[in-house]
Specification:
Helix content is 39%, strand content 23%. The strands form 2 sheets. The chain has a 5-stranded antiparallel β-sheet with strand order 5-9-8-7-6. A 4-stranded antiparallel β-sheet has the order 1-2-3-4, covered by helices on one side. The two termini are 33 Å apart.
Length: 198
């Protein structure tokens, strides 16, 4: 029910936007009829002014939580530059309200899915359009969740007596584009997509 209210509010707020300004701030394309928004390795179209959301080339309806994320992204985009600095979920504004859920729904399932399977992790990361990055960890990928929201997924291979671990990081500028609760859902989406891709 809360999702219904969030979607209704977002649709209402969309009536007041200046579409070309929104496209410029969000890094999306607007062709006079619709916004084109890349989301990981998929493309979504947000028709405007009569707001309808569809996945490019797919007849299936877009899940409601994704509609909300895409609309919030357009509505909240501040045009800030990508910071090029990784932060953990707990460093996002107000993260204490959602951190436990983020751990339960994103980090732990990611670890459970790949445990000691570093090759499976690499395969899934590449299949989702991830770019390998050299950072701490035994395997790491950078993903463009949305045009101004890079994310990173890092895998630490376990050794004798030390279990494997994973981490999901966000660009420090992400709060300029989505609320912290939405960013947790983007993390959950990434993990589910990685599990399917392995």
């Amino acid at each position: 029910m809360a999702n219904d209210a969030a979607l209704e509010q977002a649709l209402e707020e969309m009536k007041g936007i200046v579409p070309y300004a929104v496209a410029s701030k969000s890094g999306t394309d607007y062709n006079g009829k619709r916004f084109s928004i890349p989301f990981f390795n998929r493309f979504f179209l947000v028709h405007y002014p009569e707001v309808k959301i569809a996945e490019e080339g797919k007849p299936a309806p877009v899940p409601q939580y994704l509609e909300i994320i895409l609309l919030h992204y357009l509505l909240q985009a501040k045009g800030a530059s990508v910071a090029d600095e990784w932060i953990a979920y707990r460093q996002l504004p107000g993260a204490n309200l959602f951190e436990r859920r983020f751990m339960q729904m994103a980090v732990q399932p990611l670890l459970h899915a790949f445990d000691n399977n570093i090759e499976g992790f690499k395969k899934a990361g590449l299949a989702l359009g991830g770019i390998p990055i050299t950072r701490t960890g035994d395997a790491a990928f950078k993903f463009m969740a949305l045009p101004k929201i890079p994310m990173a997924c890092i895998f630490y291979q376990g050794e004798e007596g030390i279990p494997s671990s994973v981490n999901i990081l966000f660009d420090a500028a992400a709060p300029n584009y989505l609320p912290t609760e939405d960013l947790s859902l983007v993390g959950v989406y990434l993990v589910n997509a990685m599990k399917k891709a392995k």
